[in-house]
């Protein structure tokens, strides 16, 4: 007797005990699902070699990296706007609110706001623009809770934009829509199984088996620390799609055993033994494909690769160890719900496919190169905003409304070694002269004339000078993701190094998206290879 036959006999003999173990593990996994942390910030997956990641680390170490949002109040007087500003400042989780000044950046300390206050750039035609800085980061749970409190306070008077708003919107949309998408996916799969099988009971048998494996996979994600929202929501449907055939193969092998005159237990042992090598080979190729994602420099590859590969392994184990007991329990139900085939025989189609196969091969060879060129012409989006800011979405409409009144705001933060104020001022003047730079703020450029640096309160000074580094806020009038924005970032990085040396960093939504795109294009070729 071979090893696979001995394993099959053991599994069939102890199938009920094994089944109870799986049900127990499922219960534990469903509880663990509640503790799986989900990451909604894709920039967290940038490798340490990324210039943006290095800049984020330096900024967090020296200044912190709080979340920000732009909030526009409509049809309010200046007095009402000031009252709302004060109420927002008292909400837990809000660090500060900038409003009604020439300084359009929420990162600016209060003493910087006085220089051009008479312009009232944050109040136009009855619209007030608040720049809110949160205590925590854009994707932090506390920040999202704070945003909800602000929304409750302002009601329908306000519209919102900014990275913190995008992160909150991603979570809300994914949470509400992925449940619907999963339900639709399962519904289509169930419908296909009903049509393609000869019993109404078979789809239930397959889905119970694979959904149990999905539950085990999701619960064990807790041991990975955090998973991305993309992984968390696509893993289930992909796991079902790639491993459903394992269950189908086992059932068909069982039916073959019965056709050979075996009793149920013997047929089941035969099916498990026959399926072991076949399903193992099939699953290992799938696992290998998913693990190839771990070769990506962008961290989401490892995140997705491990979760998806783990899901296939759980599907394999569930089909081989758990499904035999379920199959015998449900067999009478499967038999009683037999029906006539809903689809005709595929034998004529198989014969036609065989005759046409040489032509198909020739056409494949002829079209593979031009089609490969065409797929490379696809236009991809890489930013966090691309996930939620589709045409017609509420967040896009709100951002367009704010931009229509106050213009676009694309913030970059420059971090560089503390040095001479005159050189910092010259750097600011040069950057301001660039056509796509709307505003530049640093201590030397915004310190009121005649006010010495030592008179600035330490709490304000720490926002721009700390631990031997200075911080400059650069506002671009370009969108967050575009070739023009990427060229602007490259130019500013070069200027920054000329004026402040190699130990300088540039951080922002555009720099993260730019690095993400460059890394992912290289990763794509690596993973495919």
Automatic annotation (TrEMBL):
Its main location: membrane. It is a multi-pass membrane protein. Residues 105-328 form the Membrane transport protein MMPL domain. Keywords: Cell membrane, Membrane, Transmembrane, Transmembrane helix. The chain crosses the membrane at residues 21-40, 178-197, 204-224, 236-254, 275-300, 312-331, 352-371. Pfam families: MMPL. It is found in: Cell membrane. The keyword DNA-binding does not apply. GO terms for cellular component: plasma membrane. The keyword Nucleotide-binding does not apply. InterPro entries: MMPL_dom (IPR004869), Mycobact_MmpL (IPR050545). Gene3D superfamilies: Multidrug efflux transporter AcrB transmembrane domain (1.20.1640.10). This is MMPL family transporter. It comes from Oribacterium sinus.
């Amino acid at each position: 007797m071979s090893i696979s036959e001995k394993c099959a006999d053991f599994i069939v003999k102890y199938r009920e005990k094994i089944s109870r173990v799986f049900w127990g593990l499922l219960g534990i996994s469903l509880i663990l699902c509640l503790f799986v942390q989900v990451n909604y910030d894709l920039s967290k997956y940038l490798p340490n070699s990324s210039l943006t990641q290095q800049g984020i680390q330096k900024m967090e170490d020296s200044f912190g990296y709080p979340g920000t949002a732009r909030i526009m109040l409509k049809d309010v007087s200046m007095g009402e706007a000031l009252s709302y500003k004060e109420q927002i400042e008292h909400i837990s989780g809000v660090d500060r609110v900038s409003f009604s000044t020439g300084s359009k950046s929420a990162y600016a300390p209060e003493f910087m706001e006085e220089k051009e206050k008479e312009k009232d750039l944050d109040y136009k035609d009855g619209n007030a623009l608040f720049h809110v800085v949160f205590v925590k980061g854009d994707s932090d749970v506390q920040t999202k809770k704070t945003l909800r409190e602000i929304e409750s306070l302002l009601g329908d008077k306000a519209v919102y934009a900014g990275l913190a708003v995008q992160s909150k919107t991603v979570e809300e949309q994914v949470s509400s829509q992925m449940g619907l998408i999963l339900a639709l996916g399962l519904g289509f799969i169930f419908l296909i199984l009903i049509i393609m099988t000869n019993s109404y009971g078979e789809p239930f048998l397959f889905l119970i088996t694979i959904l149990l494996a999905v539950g085990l996979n999701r619960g064990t994600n807790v041991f990975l620390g955090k998973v991305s929202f993309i992984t968390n929501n696509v893993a289930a449907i992909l796991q079902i799609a790639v491993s459903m055939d394992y269950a189908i193969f086992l059932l068909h092998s069982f039916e073959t055993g019965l056709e050979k005159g075996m009793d149920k237990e013997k047929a089941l042992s035969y099916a498990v033994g026959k399926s072991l090598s076949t399903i193992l080979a099939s699953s290992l190729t799938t696992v290998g494909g998913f693990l190839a994602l771990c070769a990506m420099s962008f961290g989401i590859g490892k995140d997705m690769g491990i979760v998806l590969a783990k899901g296939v392994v759980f599907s394999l184990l569930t089909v081989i160890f758990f499904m035999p007991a379920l199959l015998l329990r449900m067999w009478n139900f499967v038999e009683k719900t037999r029906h006539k085939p809903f689809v005709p025989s595929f034998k004529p189609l198989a014969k036609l496919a065989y005759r046409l196969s040489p032509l198909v091969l020739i056409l494949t060879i002829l079209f593979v190169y031009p089609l490969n060129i065409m797929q490379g012409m696809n236009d991809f989006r890489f930013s966090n905003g691309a996930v939620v800011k589709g045409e017609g979405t509420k967040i896009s409409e709100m951002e367009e409304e704010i931009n229509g009144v106050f213009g676009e705001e694309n913030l970059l933060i420059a971090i560089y070694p503390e040095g001479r104020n005159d050189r910092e001022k010259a750097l600011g003047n040069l950057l301001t002269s660039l056509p796509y730079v709307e505003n530049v703020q640093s201590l030397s450029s915004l310190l009121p004339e005649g006010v010495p640096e030592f008179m600035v309160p330490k709490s304000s000074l720490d926002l721009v000078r700390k631990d031997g580094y200075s911080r400059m806020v650069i506002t671009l009038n370009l969108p967050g993701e575009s070739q023009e924005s990427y060229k602007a970032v490259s130019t500013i990085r070069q200027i920054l190094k000329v004026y402040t040396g190699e130990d300088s960093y540039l951080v922002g939504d555009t720099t993260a998206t730019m690095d993400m795109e460059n890394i992912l294009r290289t990763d794509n070729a690596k993973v495919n290879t």
